[in-house]
Amino acid sequence: MFNKASIHFYYFLILFLSVSCSYDTKDQTRLTPDFQIDISLNDIKKNIKYSDFIDQYDFVKLETSENSLIGSIDEIRCSKQYIFILDMFISKGVFQFDRKGRFIRRVGKVGEGPGEYTSPISFTIHEKKSKIFILDNRQKILCFNFDGGYIEQIRSKGFLTEKIELLDDNRWAFIGGGTEDHVVMADSQLNKIKSYLPFLNRATSALIPNAIFKLGEDILVRRDYLDTVYAVTKTEIRPHIIFNFKDKSLPFEMIAKNQENPSITALSNDYCIVRFYYELKDYIYLGFIHKSNAYIVNYNKLNRSGILFSFNDIKDDITFLDNKFNSYIVGVDLITSRFIYKVETQDFIQGVESAQKQHAEGEAFIKARGLAKQLKTDDNPVLMFAKYANF
Q: Which strand (E) or helix (H) includes residue 150?
């Protein structure tokens, strides 16, 4: 298979079916990627359990109150002391918890005054400077400190943006909005410096989970439908990863010439379509669909090897959910090098109760049962910080 070298079920399924293949830039040299992951549907592993690739894990119960209630986890960032969560559409704000899940504050508030936002759509943090940056309404960034104090507001100069990330103290990287190039670089005052990956169409510019994030010294970016992840540095952009599905790879030309949103369901009948991608220093998590079925690839970058399995077939022997679509990755913790899973509390409680009726036992079940006893069905979701095994 590999070369060496919803919040509930419907929410998750919609993301798979509605939320990258060949190089998609017109002005960049085709370079050898850092990784090419060759994936064959003939190599699907059977009887996979979570414990086969999760070595260690910790649950974080997010405190639930009138002020801390989260509708969805759209973006998540972690510092050494805090967990920050963006809920774009329901609560419309950034929530700050400590590493044990205790609610600290809501950062800023909805409004039109100083330090207020109307449509928070992305955010990032600066650990060393203890700052939070919230992108509001595609054109301004509000800066706060880790104590919740408002510092300043900066407006973009002549361009719209959908997602943000800091490259360094003096440079920003954005996912461009509207018909902007896909990647826009700007200085500290949001003056545009350069841009990469020309606009193709509405389909490839759609908002997708984890479209831009920082890993080490690079900013990693991808665009919808296409199978290449790019690394952006201070001076260049290069292909970082290519997901090679061989004869199931979606031809670039099929997407490039399509000016509207093609049907994911129709395309997945013939091709493999990437929906989710997260990366840590040593591991990559990839979610894709084929014939409306969801598949996961867990890839070890050190060994250049991995595991491919059907999401429907995996046995959940850690959170014990009957409906596995209610437990999925929402981000990464770069501090501890762990993937962050979101687990809905109602499903967690029901899963543990079901496992108990089937006489489940062992350390994992005891740990899950202990947490379930502390939860109510309408509590905030539980976060699971998972360290992958050396598979």
A: strand 150-155
Model-wide pTM > 0.85: yes
Q: How far apart are CA 157 and CA 256, in angstroms?
A: 28
pLDDT in tens, 314-371: 999 999 998 777 788 999 999 999 999 999 999 999 999 999 999 999 999 999 999 9
> Whose CA is closest to 196, among 75, 29, 19?
29
The 10s digit of each residue's pLDDT in 61-90 is: 999 999 999 999 999 999 999 999 999 999
**C-alpha distances out from residue 300 to 9, 118, 366, Å:** 28, 41, 29
Residue 177 phi, psi (nearest 5): -100, 165
User: How long a stretch of residues is the chain?
Assistant: 391
DSSP 16-77: HHH---S---SSS-----SEEEE--GGG-BSS-BGGGTEEEEEEEE----TTT--S---EEE
CB-side neighbour CA atoms (13 Å) of 187: 4
